[in-house]
Design brief:
- This is Nischarin.
- InterPro entries: Leu-rich_rpt (IPR001611), Leu-rich_rpt_4 (IPR025875), Leu-rich_rpt_typical-subtyp (IPR003591), LRR_dom_sf (IPR032675), PX_dom (IPR001683), PX_dom_sf (IPR036871).
- GO terms for molecular function: phosphatidylinositol binding.
- Keywords: Leucine-rich repeat, Repeat.
- It comes from Neogobius melanostomus.
- The protein has about 450 residues and is of the alpha/beta class.
- Among the domains are: about 15-75, no CATH class; about 310-440, Leucine-rich repeat, LRR (right-handed beta-alpha superhelix), CATH 3.80.10.
- About 30% of the residues lie in helices and about 10% in strands.
- The chain contains twelve helices and 15 strands.
- The chain has an eleven-stranded parallel β-sheet with strand order 1-2-4-6-9-10-11-12-13-14-15.
- It is elongated and about 110 Å long.
- Mean pLDDT is about 80; it is low at about 1-10.
């Protein structure tokens, strides 16, 4: 039996021992005698713990193939041990699997369950070690082959009362043949194998608190092939591998990780339209020019101080999230002509003049500048809206539509600015006509 991480502080109860004696012919004399009433010395407790440990080890040796239900339940094998975990999952899917598949709901598995299935597939043991057909491993494999929506939810720290560290358990996803959507949380991406087998079918992938590299998720083969190119690419350099692209992936959410760079692995996701890289460690944005279908990008809560020539990296996107960064200039956003929704909240924007860089964007309708230093400037809203000229009425600023009163003030500010520009123009012309011959 593969027992690891058994429950701590266990006690043998009288009922379990009686069942083992009656139904499984366990010699009752193996069970240590009860302690003398009123005696609870440290030495007695320690000796009794050793005797109980010896009793359990003897039982495990006596039943090497199939643990009796009473002992299995007492030791919580269905929670902590490979065969017990898979048997419990198989029986659950025997009763509910077909109903879950027909309902098309998201099914949640823990890394411990996936690890147990992976390990049992590698063992030279029967797929039904208990003798109960309801616990056959085939029920799990049939279910995973047809499942479309999967959530894998790990956790920090030990599992229950065991010493198992769930977020470090390795498991294989190649048993899933029809997945359209997967969400992975609190699992080490280095311990996950079989992700590449999902490239043909997967449309939506979310990975949180699990990786510090996009490549580990998108190109797990990179550790074997240092030089690779995506399928269909024209390369002038010799390569050691051609990697298939993610043919159906349109949504990729890698938020809440420790990713510090957008690496070249994005070449393998050419159909992605929605990309969420918020809550990471990005200080620059590279390689996104390879995503020709990109529409929505979230780069919020990273370490971005500037976005120079953003249009050369982001293309014709419609939504851009940049909240929670360290931006003090908007110069690099001036040519994002297709942009409709822009979130710049919680940055370091202090100068209203920076708004001119986005004031001429023809499609911009929603702009969020809340929690920037410029927000404390008197008449902040009308001064920002004035930067959009005749489009001021079309802009929703900080989640609030423009009022008639604000539009009236904007018209006044526009007239003042126009008069100022004319005055500056006349001054320039006058200065030019007053130059002496030969002056440049």
């Amino acid at each position: 039996i593969l027992l690891w991480g058994a429950p701590r502080d266990f006690r043998i109860d009288k009922g379990s021992a009686a069942i083992l004696t009656a139904e499984n012919k366990v010699d009752r004399r193996l069970l240590p005698p009860k302690k003398i009433l009123g005696k609870n010395s440290k030495s007695l407790v320690e000796r009794r713990q050793k005797d109980l440990e010896q009793y359990l080890q003897t039982l495990l040796v006596q039943f090497p193939q199939a643990t009796p239900p009473a002992l299995s339940c007492f030791l919580h094998l269905q929670l902590y041990e490979v065969n017990g975990v898979t048997a419990a999952l198989a029986e659950d899917l025997f009763h509910k699997g077909e109903q879950l598949l027909e309902a098309g709901q998201v099914f949640t598995l823990r890394p411990l369950q996936l690890y147990s299935v992976t390990q049992q597939l590698r063992l030279a043991t029967p797929t039904c070690f208990t003798g109960d057909a309801k616990t056959d491993l085939g029920h799990i494999l049939d279910f995973t082959c047809r499942l479309k929506y999967l959530k894998i939810s790990g956790a920090q720290g030990p599992v229950g009362s065991s010493n198992i560290q769930e977020n470090s358990l390795p498991f294989d996803l190649s048993i899933f043949k029809s997945l359209l959507q997967i969400e992975i949380t609190e699992c080490s991406s280095q311990q996950i194998s079989g992700l590449s087998s999902l490239r043909q079918t997967l449309a939506t992938m979310s990975v949180h608190h699990s990786t510090d590299s996009m490549q580990l998720v998108l190109v797990p083969e990179a550790s074997e092939f240092p030089q690779w190119e995506p399928e269909g690419a024209v390369s002038s350099c010799p390569v050691t591998a051609v990697i298939p692209v993610w043919k159906s992936l349109t949504t990729l959410d890698l938020s809440h990780n420790d990713i510090s760079a957008v690496d070249s692995s994005v070449k393998l996701i050419p159909k992605v339209e929605f990309l969420d890289l918020s809550h990471n460690q990005l200080s620059s944005v590279e390689n996104l020019q390879h995503l020709y279908s990109l529409v929505h990008v979230d780069l919020s809560y990273n370490l971005l101080c500037s976005l120079d020539a953003a249009h050369t990296r982001l293309g014709n996107i419609k939504t851009l999230g940049l909240s929670g960064n360290q931006l003090s200039s908007l110069q690099g956003l001036c040519k994002l002509y297709s942009l409709v929704n822009l979130d710049l909240s919680h940055n370091q924007l202090t100068q209203l003049e920076e708004i001119r860089n986005i004031g001429s964007l023809p499609c911009l309708e929603k702009l969020n500048l809340s929690d920037n230093p410029m927000c404390i400037i008197p008449d902040y809203r009308t001064k920002v809206l004035a930067q959009f000229g005749d489009r001021a009425a079309e802009v929703c600023l900080d989640g609030k539509t423009t009022t008639e009163k604000e539009l009236d003030t904007v018209e006044v500010l526009k007239a003042i600015q126009k008069a100022k520009d004319m005055k500056d123009q006349k001054r320039t012309i006058h200065s030019f006509t007053q130059r002496k011959p030969g002056q440049e």
